[in-house]
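Because showing beats explaining, we think one record worth quoting, sequence and backbone structure tokens together, and here it is:
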Amino acid sequence: MSDFHQNGLITDFHNLTRRPVESLEEELVQFSRRRPMGLILPSLFSELQGPALSGIVDELSKVPYLGEIVIGLDCADREQFLHARDFFSRLPQHTRILWNDGPRLRELDQELESHGLGALEPGKGRNVWYCAGYVLASGRSSVVGLHDCDILTYERGMLARLMYPVAHPRFNYSFCKGYYPRIAEGKLNGRVTRLLVTPLLRALKIMYGPLPYLEYLDSFRYPLSGEFAMRSDVLEGIRIPADWGLEIGVLSELHRGYSNRQLCQVDIADAYDHKHQPVSKDDPGGGLNRMSLDIAKALYRKLATKGVSFSTEDFRTLKATYYRLALDLIEAYDHDATMNGLSLDRHSEEQAVELFAGNLLEAGTLFLDNPRERPFIPSWSRVQAAVPDILTRMYAAVEEDNKGAV
């Protein structure tokens, strides 16, 4: 049973009654007449062959209130794209696949790069950004959800709960973030949120005071969740990070442009499991190693815009403060897991904290040494100002890929 705590910063929607999904969907069908709804699914081709996505598609095929599904497909050649068209064809909604590696979208991408407006590197951020552009181009959805394609425990009630706060015509929320416990196979998961983000935010508050931005981020129960819903007009004005800082970057953009009263979070699942990233201790370009670097840099960049100045000595102090807080949290998580009959490997948890602590210093060095770094993909409003017909041409390219010969 979920608690009913409200921390006063953003509204928290709880799962107090285990309301049946059919009841939520009945209302959402009514809401969709006033606020049409769509869904973005950023996907690698490899996920079509994984254990989760086919089940997700089966669940989505039962959702009665969705009018549009937009799939961003990465790392796919021509034959794989044709396979994807067939794979998703069982969805009854208006479904379009963005073949991001296809010649039509690559041509548009190169044009944007010539204007200095393209994404600097492939990845989830770039994928989501192009999907957002297509949603704006299609004009079919005024409320848009997004979630990952590797959720092993997916059921359509997750989406219903995620969309409800933004879709309800009496509510005034522009953005909703999903949260859940990360539990699978008798283990407590979610290491990057538990062992990096939470103690890092608290260490930053100790060093720089309870800044509104830090209090805001710390109010989210799962700031790194990949599940959120928003009004479609939000997509036009926000800048999306191209790296692993996507989720923190989106929350930062919302903090800049929206009041806390327009933002909320919702409990969408009793348990959640998806593909686990390796720690990749010896590979700074992969896994949790890369993720922790990008998240730390995203936080440093945002705090710099708030007037916080950093030095090498500051980052050394931050590392020490973070490390002590993280070790204390490991003990708390260990006790919580034990009481709930779950396992937690304290040795591997402390190894992860040691890696993250070192990466706080490394991220600080990268931040100080690269003041000209351009971490965000430009907003679609800026892109349209530079290339006014870009969305019209993107829409036509996607239609040709999905309906014609490729």
Remarks:
- The mean pLDDT is 92.
- Residues 108 and 393 are 8 Å apart (CA to CA).
- The first helix runs from residue 21 to 34.
- The two ends are 51 Å apart (CA to CA).
